[in-house]
Amino acid sequence: MPALSVRHLLGIKYLNEKDIELIFETADQFKEVINRSIKKVPSLRDITIANIFFENSTRTKLSFELAEKRLSADVLNFSASQSSVKKGETLIDTVNNILSMKVDMVVMRHPNPGAGIFLSKHVNASIINAGDGAHEHPTQALLDSYSIREKLGEVGGKKVIIVGDILHSRVALSNIFALKLQGAQVKVCGPKTLIPKYIESLGVEVEPDLRRGLEWCDVANMLRVQNERMEMSYFPTTREYTQQFGINRELLDSLDKEIVIMHPGPINRGVEITSDVADSSQSIILHQVENGVAIRMAVIYLLASQLKT
Ligand code: CP
């Protein structure tokens, strides 16, 4: 059976092109399963997975839980805000206590970049990074590329612009790694203060003008401004941000082609995207969410297969 080159999913940075192909082919099979009337397979009946979330989440948390249940795994859900973390327990103590209950896999979201990498060196379980600070969000990037592949036939050769707060975005970094690995062309667009200095070293071009960027691209991935990760203002006002970097119907209609609109969520309606764009037929935002379940089933299934070797 084909296998991933990694035992944990800590970031797209650690994957190769074949890993992504394998995840997508496996997700194709699971997508077929979750569209049947009986949406469950018995594949992981002997596996226990803990979802430990130290940061808020709607899509990722529910999507992982559903993916695990569709695979028939036993599932533990842990939310730091209601746990002994509040009494000062360390990350390793928390996870080792959970693992002593014979848990095989940990899905973790954490505010600190590298938290999953740290954990993978200290505990004996397979770790999936569900977002670590402003570092990586690998399953989001996989479901984003999978959704582009579904909509446009392939990712290689496509032109993708990522718009918004690139500096604080784990979605941006993981998407850049994933898209480049598959041969897409990538540009980023946003206020100069929200574009990291190193970005061009990743093979990405900076496009300061949103209209020019939209005229160039096949796909625009609109990101939220991550106010919760900012200790100061990075642009004068939200109104000015929206005027320069927000997407709206009038702007899209003025282009001489139809582009695909994506957003990882949560959306700030009226800031980076207006409702008439987010809810339009050009938007694949809810397809991204739907595909997230199949992608996460594929990742969990492939990593769990390695637990048995
Ligand atoms: N896209 C994403 O990570 O959303 P949540 O924060 O709701 O999980």
Automatic annotation (TrEMBL):
<comment type="subunit">
    <text>Heterododecamer (2C3:3R2) of six catalytic PyrB chains organized as two trimers (C3), and six regulatory PyrI chains organized as three dimers (R2).</text>
</comment>
<dbReference type="InterPro" id="IPR006131">
    <property type="entry name" value="Asp_carbamoyltransf_Asp/Orn-bd"/>
</dbReference>
<dbReference type="Pfam" id="PF02729">
    <property type="entry name" value="OTCace_N"/>
</dbReference>
<protein>
    <recommendedName>
        <fullName>Aspartate carbamoyltransferase</fullName>
        <ecNumber>2.1.3.2</ecNumber>
    </recommendedName>
</protein>
<feature type="binding site">
    <location>
        <position position="59"/>
    </location>
    <ligand>
        <name>carbamoyl phosphate</name>
    </ligand>
</feature>
<feature type="binding site">
    <location>
        <position position="265"/>
    </location>
    <ligand>
        <name>carbamoyl phosphate</name>
    </ligand>
</feature>
<feature type="binding site">
    <location>
        <position position="224"/>
    </location>
    <ligand>
        <name>L-aspartate</name>
    </ligand>
</feature>
<feature type="binding site">
    <location>
        <position position="87"/>
    </location>
    <ligand>
        <name>L-aspartate</name>
    </ligand>
</feature>
<feature type="binding site">
    <location>
        <position position="60"/>
    </location>
    <ligand>
        <name>carbamoyl phosphate</name>
    </ligand>
</feature>
<feature type="binding site">
    <location>
        <position position="140"/>
    </location>
    <ligand>
        <name>carbamoyl phosphate</name>
    </ligand>
</feature>
<dbReference type="InterPro" id="IPR006132">
    <property type="entry name" value="Asp/Orn_carbamoyltranf_P-bd"/>
</dbReference>
<feature type="binding site">
    <location>
        <position position="170"/>
    </location>
    <ligand>
        <name>L-aspartate</name>
    </ligand>
</feature>
<keyword id="KW-0808">Transferase</keyword>
<feature type="domain" description="Aspartate/ornithine carbamoyltransferase carbamoyl-P binding">
    <location>
        <begin position="7"/>
        <end position="150"/>
    </location>
</feature>
<comment type="function">
    <text>Catalyzes the condensation of carbamoyl phosphate and aspartate to form carbamoyl aspartate and inorganic phosphate, the committed step in the de novo pyrimidine nucleotide biosynthesis pathway.</text>
</comment>
<feature type="binding site">
    <location>
        <position position="266"/>
    </location>
    <ligand>
        <name>carbamoyl phosphate</name>
    </ligand>
</feature>
<dbReference type="InterPro" id="IPR036901">
    <property type="entry name" value="Asp/Orn_carbamoylTrfase_sf"/>
</dbReference>
<feature type="binding site">
    <location>
        <position position="109"/>
    </location>
    <ligand>
        <name>carbamoyl phosphate</name>
    </ligand>
</feature>
<dbReference type="InterPro" id="IPR006130">
    <property type="entry name" value="Asp/Orn_carbamoylTrfase"/>
</dbReference>
<feature type="binding site">
    <location>
        <position position="137"/>
    </location>
    <ligand>
        <name>carbamoyl phosphate</name>
    </ligand>
</feature>
<comment type="similarity">
    <text>Belongs to the aspartate/ornithine carbamoyltransferase superfamily. ATCase family.</text>
</comment>
<dbReference type="Pfam" id="PF00185">
    <property type="entry name" value="OTCace"/>
</dbReference>
<keyword id="KW-0665">Pyrimidine biosynthesis</keyword>
<comment type="pathway">
    <text>Pyrimidine metabolism; UMP biosynthesis via de novo pathway; (S)-dihydroorotate from bicarbonate: step 2/3.</text>
</comment>
<dbReference type="InterPro" id="IPR002082">
    <property type="entry name" value="Asp_carbamoyltransf"/>
</dbReference>
<feature type="domain" description="Aspartate/ornithine carbamoyltransferase Asp/Orn-binding">
    <location>
        <begin position="157"/>
        <end position="302"/>
    </location>
</feature>
